[in-house]
Here is the input.
Amino acid sequence: MPEDATAATTLPATAAETSPDNPWPLQLLSQKLKLHIDRAPSAWVEGQVIELNRRGNNAYLTLRDIDAEISLPASVWTNVLDRQEAPLERGSRVVALLKAEFWLKTGRLSMSVKDIRPVGLGDLLARIERLRHALAAEGLFTDARKKRLPLLPHRIGLITGRDSDAKKDVLRNAALRWPAVEFEIREVAVQGNTAVTQVIAALRELDAHPEVDVIVIARGGGALEDLLPFSNEELIRAVADAVTPVVSAIGHEADRPILDDVADLRASTPTDAAKRIVPDVVEELARVRQARDQLRRGVTRLVERESDRLASLRSRPVLASPEGMVTMRLDDVERLRGRSRSAITAAVVRAADQLVHLKAQVRALSPQKTLDRGYAVVQLADGQDVPGTRRDVVRHPSQAPSGTDLTVRVAGGRFTAQATGGQEPSGN
Here is the structure.
């Protein structure tokens, strides 16, 4: 067996099995890297051309990410560039089909452009609309998610460009409407590949600020490419997650980035945003004066109405001469007193007459009156000398046989007698 074949069988099978005592030859590592990179598929990427140099049949360009500070050099055959309808220039936004290539002899990794296409305005608009529809399907634009702006914000967070006209418009118009308004300003890049990260960072910082009641993202008008950061999906989701109400004031009325759809309020311009986030102090003072006038008129009408009622009550006879009530009741009392006196007198007279009549009846029915009419009461004399005994009244002849001592009571007094015989009355 040859010596090189024997040595090859003793080499580690994987990179993890290598060691200082048993390393790989550099050739083997390069071969494995090339095999691994060759298996990697091609990928379409989007970026901006920031460098472009032609050298014979080859051209060298550098692509930079749209939203981040990341760039990548690549090479392309000039015939690929010549297929374009318009010459490719620096600053062009493109999509390119990249394939990683590893040069075995030099150990150099390079990116080869197999195809490249410029991104036109139509492509950008179509891409924005697809993203808009996808986010709308998630419900990020529904009215139920939108928060109400405060009537009078204590402090306004403003995210805008450095020393931009949009910043001046918002500050000037807000101060004209409400001079006491306060701002927390964050100046960021509002276009370019760093705009998205800076705007998101400022948004999160202001959203966490305890005194900021509303956040305004403002930028002046511009080309579609300049406004693309405000249709970035990462920024849109950051606005949707914000707790503080967000106002979008991007460009002009015709501009419609996706930020307008997800924001809690869309202002057509930065000036319009200033007018909609703070009330007009002149209008508010006019409303206060109007409310005070209405209140004053209401109180005046109430006082006048109650004064009229009091005057009406005071004009009534009972209040005009209140002693009339006492006089009228005095006459009633005197009349009732006379009627009571007459009734009592009549009752006493009737009672006196009835008493005389009853006395006459009692006297007429008394035993003495009976004796006065010539009648007598005959009693047995037995036991008349015994104290406390009752003399029996003789009611029948059989009670007084002959020789019985009797006591006879007449009107003038009494006397004794003796029975001589008895005789029953005739008839029935």
